[in-house]
Amino acid sequence: MNKKIIIVANTSWYLFNFRLNLILRLQGLGYEVVAVAPPDNYSDRFAAYGIKFTALPMDNKGTNPLKDSLLIFRFVQLFLQVKPSCILSYTPKCNIYGALAAGFLGKPIINNVSGLGTAFIRENLVTRIVKWLYIVSLRKSAKVFFQNKDDLMLFIDRGLVKAELTDLLPGSGVDVHRFTPAASSIPRTTFVFLFVARMLKDKGVIELVTAMRVLKNRYPHIECQLLGFLDAKNPSAVSSEEMQAWVNEGVVNYLGISDSVVDFFAASGLRGFAFLSRGYAAFAVRGGECR
User: Fold this and answer.
1) How many domains does the chain fold into?
2) What 3-state DSSP class applies to 6?
3) Is 206 found in the same domain as 123?
4) Three-state secondary structure call for residue 112
5) How many CB atoms lie within 10 A of CB 74?
6) Tens of pLDDT along the chain (291 residues)?
7) Is residue 290 situated within a structural domain?
8) Residues 219 and 257 in one domain
C-alpha cells in the first residue's frame, strides 16, 4: 500500500508554523509526508524533523491567468513525480489549482478552506473568476473541510461546492503542550491590548488603530501592541511607513515578528487582553479589566 502524502500550502512559513504537528502525527502513523510550498526562510527547517520538502514556485497573490495556468502544470508534474496516495491542500491557490491537477490525474485531494481570502471581500471580476474556479476545481475533491460555518454555507449556497463533499472542522487545533496557561506573568501598571496577526487592513488593523485613538484619549495609560508581519505580499498589507507613522503618533507599539508568540502573551502582564488572528492559539494570561 502506498502511504505517501503530499501536504501543500502557499508558503513554507504557513506549513511549518500551522501544520507541523499534523505532519508529525501522520509520520507517526507510518505515512511518508512530503511538504510542498514556495521556498522561503522556513523551507530548510523541515529537515530537522525528518520531513522531505519540495519547493514549488508560486505567485501567491498574482492574478495573471497565464502564470496560474502554469501552476496547474507544476502540480501535475509534482504529483506524477511523487506519486502520492493522497494530497492535503491548504490556502486558496493550492486548493484551486492543486485540485484541478489532482482531478486531471485521478488523485484524491482533501481541501481545507480555513478562510476566504481577499477575493471575497470586494465583489469584482476577480471574485467572479475565483468563484468559477472553485466550482470547476472542487467538484472532484474527495473532501472539502471548512473551519468557519459561514464560509461553509456561503460555498454551498452559491453552488461553489456540493454539500455532500463538505465537513466542518472546529479549527486548526492547538498544541496544548506548548500553549498552556501561564503560571505567572509579568505585572504591569498599564492595560495592554495585544494584536497578533499579519498586518493586513482586511484583518481590521485600521479599525483597531482608530479605536485605540479614541480609547487613549479617555485612558492614557493603556497600550496597544501589534505583533506580526509587515509589507506582506497582499494588496491590503500595512506598509512600514504606515506603521512607523502610528508608532510616532504614540497610538501603537509595533513589536515586529516572532516565532514564539507565547512569550509576548505572558509579557503583556496581569492586565492584558489579546486579539488573535487565525492560526494563533489562545494563551491565558489572567487578564484584568480596563478602568
Assistant:
1) 2
2) strand
3) no
4) strand
5) 16
6) 568 999 999 899 889 988 999 999 999 999 999 999 999 989 999 999 999 999 998 877 666 666 777 889 999 999 999 999 999 999 888 999 999 999 999 999 999 998 776 666 667 777 788 888 889 899 989 999 998 898 899 899 989 999 999 999 887 777 777 777 766 666 667 788 888 888 888 788 899 999 999 999 898 888 899 998 886 667 778 888 999 999 999 999 998 887 777 777 767 664 555 555 543 333 333 333 333
7) no
8) yes
Alpha helices by DSSP H, listed for the chain, are 12-18, 20-28, 65-82, 92-93, 99-105, 125-138, 149-157, 205-218, 240-249, 261-267
Measured CA to CA, the distance from residue 195 to residue 255 in angstroms comes to 10
Residue identified by cell 456561503 is 154
268 alpha carbon, distance to own chain's centre: 24
162 shares its domain with 198 = no
Number of Cβ within 10 Å of residue 239's Cβ equals: 11
Cβ 179 vs Cβ 283: under 8 Å: yes
Name the residue range of residue 249's domain.
Answer: 192-276
d(CA 129, CA 63): 10
Last residue of a domain, one of 134, 168, 202: 168
Question: What's the CATH code of the domain at 209?
Answer: 3.40.50.2000
DSSP 40-97: -TTGGGGGGGT-EEEE----TT---HHHHHHHHHHHHHHHHHH--SEEEEESHHIIII
**Is residue 263 packed enough to be buried (19+ CB in 10 Å), middle (13-18) or exposed (0-12)?**
exposed
Q: How far apart are CA 262 and CA 265, in angstroms?
A: 5
Residue 201 neighbours by CB under 8 Å, 6+ apart: 236, 237, 238
CA-CA distance, 202 to 262, in Å (whole number)?
Answer: 24
> Grid coordinates standing for 9?
500550502
